[in-house]
Amino acid sequence: MLSLILGLAAVEPEPIIVTGRGLAAGETAGAAVVVIDQDRLRQSASGRLEDVLRDVAGVQSFRRSDSRSSHATNQSITLRGLGGNASSRALLLLDGVPQGDPFGGWITFPAYSTDRIGEVRIRRGGGSAYFGPGALAGTVELESAVPSADDAVRGALTVGSRDSLDARAGLLLSSRSRFATVSGAFARGDGFIPIVAEDRGPIDRRAPYRQASGAVRVVQDVGAATEAQLNLGAFSDRRDRGVPFTTNRGRGIDTSLRLVGKGRIRWSALGYAQFRNFASDFSSINATRTTSTQTLDQYSVPSRGYGFRGEILPRVGSAELRVGIDGRLVRGETKELYQFVAGAPTRRRVAGGRSDTFGLFAAATVPAGSAILSVSGRADRWSITDGRFLQQTLNGPTLTDTAFADRNGWQGSGRVAGEVRVAPPLKLRAAAYRGWRLPTLNELYRPFRAGADATGPNPGLEPETMVGGEIGGDFGFPRGWKLSLTAYTARLDGAIANVSQSSGPGTFPIVGFVAAGGTYRQRQNLDAIRSRGLEADLGGALGPLDARLSWSLVDARVEGSGAAASLDGKRPAQTPATQASATLGWSGADDWRLSGTVRALSGQYEDDLNLRRLKPAVTLDGYASAPLGSRIALEVRAENLFNRTVEAAVSGDGVIERALPRTLWIGLRLR
């Protein structure tokens, strides 16, 4: 790779012919798709991917806080009210590669600098035979930016509130048949105090963060209308949760190679590998918040993910077929020190295993006059093996050494969809689908604590399955305005949730002692989560003004019996009934830009029993850019401009944690 990059450096920039893109996305007929372009990505007030995704109502992470202050394991992604779990129920992909953490399924958002992303496609609705397991609620597809010859060097440097710094840089080396991009990003800040002022104690402090990422991408024409696309990315993520013994650290390296044939018969072959490690400290805080005592040192969570995908797109008459095979192999474990006495651990725990999925899929898209019909299906073989739970005293006997039985099975996914253009401005669409998700190794084997609450694993968890359907319409208006409306229903059978079992004080299996005010929970398969809702998206431009509006209404309810009977009829945890986002922007001559974004969330429940409610929240973000010359622009950004309190969590004893307060930024960007 080094010799290739050095060779490119000696070549004068020419128009780039290779595209760096994959094949056109499958299963687009009848789908509710929202596209976020590069301009919007670069004009986000925070400059962070999770913030941009909130432009699309219905997209949510498990917590309202972002990747600067939230615990990394709470950074999942889901849509359509199918939340209630910190594991992702939507599939995030970068250049075709699944991005969920191999062990836990969470998303490490600091790994994705928005300057490196060219486009985001959010597809609401699950059951994708094309994308496979995990796409229960939908997919979020990230495409790397395709550079142009006049974008050979780019960069930005901004400073912000609480001694924050955000730096990004990128370099393009190109010739007619190849290009290479090298990019990096670094962010740090002293952070804010997560606990609201009225609940703080002497131990509460600011929660600093320090995050970095880098990527190298090489795209090469290898002849016969074929491109080779090599990606290599790495990240480092360190955050503090605002009290002693709550630091969490993550790092990772991902690589992939994709060959794309764009001749008469299109085809693609992809292979990838992910290497991740995570570590976190946990503490117990007394009622007056005067002391914080370490309870757990999760000192290493090594995990690996390997995968492949191959597909071919032949044409039969006017129909386009897509046939392929894919697979993903995951290995991981958690290594922890616990039961601290006089500040020192006395016991060690190791838990983990492996899981594999292999699938065959086929899809057909058939145009018929003004209508398009799409039918797809897949069959997956899954297995969960080598599960182990080990507890031992340090320098002493083994307490528990359990090997869990290997399991396997088959699951199917499918989608039938169609659309018809009734008249030039109106397109109607409908879809029905089935999808599934395998439990993560984290859900199967690892206990965890959050404040006074403790949650135990469940090695007997079964896969989640979902059936759903939707109808909708897209309305085109003059001057490029578009309105999309969608109504949907979905039923998630076997939904994995943290189910309350008992209240402290008491000692419980695996997790140990839970103090008064705390709750003991265990991961279990619920009967179902039923979700119904409406979604609306409006966007367009009027002269120098452009506007985007997104709104969703969700009625999501749990169906529970047996040990989960107390949850029946309750809303899933962390699921707001309504979400809305509205952005109004102005673009002037010489790249003057100004925009504002309002986001609103209704109230939602912190817990499965719907006892702890997070208040509604409304925030305003702002962005402004002014040219200072032909190549440099001044940027000013504002997050949560009116400094609204956004409640992110409520502990068992009523202590409220907040998301980001007002944060102001100013800096320079190479244009």
UniProtKB/TrEMBL annotation:
Protein topology in the membrane: Multi-pass membrane protein
Pfam assignment, any one: Plug
Superkingdom of this protein's organism: Bacteria
InterPro entries: Beta-barrel_TonB, Beta-barrel_TonB_sf, Plug_dom, Plug_dom_sf, TonB-dep_rcpt-like
Main location: membrane
Annotated coiled-coil segments of the chain: none
Location of the protein in the cell: Cell outer membrane
Residue stretches making up the TonB-dependent receptor-like beta-barrel domain: 238-641
TonB-dependent receptor plug domain residues: 29-139
PROSITE patterns with a match to the protein in the record: TONB_DEPENDENT_REC_3
Keywords: Cell outer membrane, Membrane, Receptor, Signal, TonB box, Transmembrane, Transmembrane beta strand, Transport
Similarity-based family: Belongs to the TonB-dependent receptor family.
Family matches, as PANTHER family: HEMOGLOBIN AND HEMOGLOBIN-HAPTOGLOBIN-BINDING PROTEIN 1-RELATED, TONB-DEPENDENT OUTER MEMBRANE RECEPTOR
Protein name per Swiss-Prot or TrEMBL: TonB-dependent receptor
Originating organism: Sphingomonas kaistensis
Lineage: Bacteria, Pseudomonadati, Pseudomonadota, Alphaproteobacteria, Sphingomonadales
